[in-house]
Amino acid sequence: MTNGASAIAPQGTSEFIDPTQETLDQYQKLLDSSNIAETLDEDVLQRMGQKVCEDFEIDEDSREDWKKRNADAIKLATQVVEAKSEPFEGAANIKYPTLSMAAVQFGARAYGQIIKEGQIVQGKVIGADKGGMKASQAQRIGHHMSYQLTEEMEEWEGEMDALLIALPIEGCEFKKTYYSAQLERNVSQWIRPEHLVVNYHAKSLETASRYTHIIYLSPNQIVERVRSGMFLDIKDFDNPPVEDEDRPIDNRDDDAPHTFYEQYRFWDLDDDGYKEPYIVTVHKDSQKVVRIVARFDLDGIHVNPKGQIARIDPVHYITRYLFMPSPDGGIYGMGFGTLLAPINKSINITLNQIHDAGTLSNTQGGFIGKTASLAKHKGGGQVKFKMGEFKSLNYTGDDIRKAILPLPFKGPDVVLFQVLGLLIDAGEKLGNVVDPLVGQSPGANVPATTTLALIEQGLKVFGSTFKRIHRSLKSELRKLYRLNRLYLDNQAYFTIMDEQRAVARTDYNNKTCDVYPVSDPNQVSNIQKLITAQALLELLGQGLNDDEIRRRYLEALQIPDIDKLIPEGGAKPPIDPKIMLELQKLELERDRFELEMFKSQYDVLKVQADAIKSVAQAEAAELGPQIETYKAHLDLIIEGMKAKAQEKQAKKNESSEQGRSS
Questions:
Q1: What percent of the chain is helix, strand and coil (3-state, nearest 5)?
Q2: CA 169 vs CA 107, 174, 446: distances in Å
Q3: Which tens digits make up the pLDDT trace of 556-606?
Q4: What is the mean pLDDT of residues 267-271?
Q5: If we measure between CA atoms, which residue out of 81, 75, 85 comes closest to residue 94?
Q6: CB 655 within 8 A of CB 637
Q7: What is the distance between the alpha carbons of residues 94 and 104, in angstroms, rounded to a whole number?
Q8: Distances in Å between the alpha carbon of 289 and those of 222, 325, 374?
Q9: Which residues contact 214 (CB under 8 A, 6 or more apart)?
């Protein structure tokens, strides 16, 4: 081997040939089938159903520890009320909402970044765009997909809102994006991580050999799928569903749902030695296959020069939203439910100890000797007093304190309060719930720059997490883009701000345009955007696009209907006050000069008039054509002076009009 040569050999070749028409026709039949299971033998379906259930159990066992941690996090975040009998019956069981506040704050910040004035998606041009046709196409796509998500796909906004609150608690959530033939539209469904079973040690959904979506369908929903041809009609649907530990079922409920495993996996149906990607749906109780559909496109089929299937790219319908990668590499990641749980539990223990100590100190208790007794409470027991009431006591001794011994309850310890404050402070820092980030004042006499620096530091963790959300949202939008390319009407109409617009299926060409979210992962707060916009304002008149600078400033201020504020052709740049002052000085000097010129011309005119008068007197006899010549010459001089005065006034009027428009 020569010096510096790579020791890594190439793993293969990327040279493929086009599939034959026979191969394309074979796979096209699979793609056209709404249920491939109808064409398979019973023994194949039985073997497949058992294999799906076995593989599901393997994946479920691999995430057993994660399920326990996740269940504890949900109980802690939702403030589940639980009875407590230690150290005494009815002891305090307060749960401090550190985890809950962190989740709500994160969800509120993230949701505001994703949806901006009803716009979620923007198109992106691929390649050169000389005539601007691609830019118009990208704009149509962005408006149409935003309309789909906010108006047509009714579940999207609400479920995205819920996902962003659950995400920081559980660390991972899923979205399933597909076309529903029953609803005749695209659907983007939120899936809780407990209902999406994938081997815990898988690196990603794209590289996992399989993953399973647990689906619950009522008897009526099953009938709909059977009659529409989506499901095979099996007799086991008539039996009531079997109860398990994860989903208790009331036998009195006739509409109790059945459980199905929708498994995304590979299976060699054509016996060519290569497993193709399919979606296999199995009825859990009977382990019978009810549906099989292909999950690939024809352009994802790759054939080697020998004519063999080298690779089939699977189509992915599930998008993973990750809060934070897990240090152990688990696919479900890690959230505040794992990070804050130990601190939150310690806060709860300390807070309950303080509360219990106060309760014992206030209620008291102790020992009463047999020689001292109350009429109704002989032998001791609980005695309650009303305000201003005295109880009679049967006691013959000289000191009542010798018959009654109270237990020494000291009350809450000061050290516990200090420990509690330390734990709460640590939890809030970890959960990013510090005062400037929850809308509270950082204190008096704190400079604005200091507050902005605190906010920027506090948002660093949120910013890195939001970048992961941004990437996942981009992946979900691309899935929706593909569905529009396949299922959208040839011409679709939608309305934005009472204006009807149109988009064509041909617009969704993945070779000319792409889509990505309008959210900016580099700017995760309105304050950051406003500071950036204010910095741009200082560059007005420096050779940049001043209209775009003003637009961005108005957007940072969240001013609605910006287009109505900016006139057609762009706003005229304001004149610098210093330049205005210099112009006024020049105009004043010009007026003075013109005044001197006017005086000089007046003097010349006066001399000429006197001369004409003298000549006229000297030649009084010449009243004919000579005097008319003199008059004509005088008229020309007067008209010239008038024209000069009118020109000067017109220039002053034009200068005043420009000042007012600026």
A1: 50, 15, 35
A2: 10, 14, 33
A3: 766 666 666 666 655 555 566 677 777 777 777 777 777 777 677 666 666
A4: 92
A5: 81
A6: no
A7: 19
A8: 14, 35, 76
A9: 195, 196, 197, 259, 260, 261, 262
> What digits encode the pLDDT tens for the residues 467-509?
899 999 999 999 999 999 999 999 888 877 678 889 999 999 8
Which helix (H) or strand (E) segment holds residue 141: the answer is: helix 133-147
Name which of 169, 137, 178 is nearest 71 in CA terms: 169
DSSP string, 312-351: EEEPP-EEEEESS--TT--TT---HHHHTHHHHHHHHHHH
Q: Report yes or no: 455 and 437 within 8 Å, Cβ to Cβ.
A: yes
Rounded-to-integer distance, Cα 320 and Cα 107, Å: 17
Residue-wise DSSP of 496-551 = ETTEEEEEEGGG--TTTEEEEES--TT--SHHHHHHHHHHHHTTTTSSS-HHHHHH
For 17, the 3-state DSSP assignment is strand
- Burial class of residue 148, CB neighbours in 10 A (0-12, 13-18, 19+): buried
- Helices 155-170 and 98-114 pack at an angle, to 10 degrees, of 140
- The dihedral through the CA atoms of 25, 27, 28, 29 has a sign that is positive
List beta partners, residue 261: 214, 282
Question: Alpha carbon 213 to chain centroid distance?
Answer: 24
Write the pLDDT tens digit of every residue in 187-215: 999 999 999 999 999 999 999 999 999 99
Contact 77, 104 (CB under 8 A): no
DSSP state of 34: S
Interacting residues of 651 by C-beta distance below 8 A, sequence separation 6+:
none
**Which of 583, 605, 594 lies closest to 644 in space, CA to CA?**
594
Which of 223-232, 318-327, 635-644 has the least mean pLDDT? 635-644
Provide the percentage of residues in the chain whose pLDDT is more than 70.
71
